[in-house]
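The protein record filed here:
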Amino acid sequence: MIKILLTIIQVGIVIVPLFLGILLVFRSSASYEEAHQNSKAASWGISRSRYALLMRLLGVLLLCVSAFAAYSLFFEQEQKVDDEVRDFWKDIEDKSKDAFPKAAMLLGAAIAIPTRMSSTRFPGKPLAKLGSKTVIEHVYERCMKSELAERAVILTDSPQIMDFAKQMGAEAIMTSPQCSSGTERIIEAFDEIGAEFVVNVQGDEPFISPNLIDALIQKRAETSCDLVTAASRISDVAALENENVVKVLRAEDGRAIYFSRSPLPFIRGVREREKWLEKAAYWRHIGIYGYSRKALNLYAKFGPCALEKCEMLEQLRFISNGMQFEVVQTQYESIGIDTPADLVAAEEFLKRQS
């Protein structure tokens, strides 16, 4: 009943001004002359022609009111609903892209394991035996223990590694031999990996910590950062002075300011490096990275930079172009395999673990 009354009122709001407007606009001049004589307009000094013009203008105004009412009540309302629905879904879409809720983040995280057979210092390294398994088996199995990554994928340009991955039931993607780094392999395979965030685990890290991988994914979930890596505190002078131990210079908020093979910061006026460790915190960079799609797209556009060429550290390409790394602090220390001698040391480490 109420809806019927509201409908009648809405129709009246349109019909009444429409009827009056038509009446005033199309009223004859003779009728206006008679009305003028019987109105107060004559006593106010308003002529018959001006009186008729004013009435017709009032009629036009009423027609406009009727048209506006009809549009607002019967046409705009439907359009408004459509706009509201569109805005609602657009808002949902924007939130899903920009905000990074934890659940969505975890479903979008994957692990990429770039590896190749043609290492200069250790050819065939991925398929070298470490205990009862190959190096790449150890890496893949540890990555699969991650609780927050959706999948782990081996990236390679080697048919041998592709065949071996198939034998052990691992996911693998063939990439171009022209890729000069693991990052480039990830960029090439990113769409096929199908994740919004990828953790880059080196294929020569057989003891990589699944907890560390999850810590990088969690950091992304908490901060929506585009870049994240890891670092452990340096406590001995040998590591501080070793150019093969990459150092991370960190800001007060913990993010990476710079990566270098030299000890940073430099302690002026103090020659003994032991005392440097007392005066400042030095951080060993752990070679694991988390990349968002945006970060990898920018990396491909930036191209090599001067700092990257000086230090031979590809992560400086991001730093040099104004991007920042979040840093996960860890006690894990990388035990990578670059040479046959490293494999022997890894074998001893594996025995001690057993």
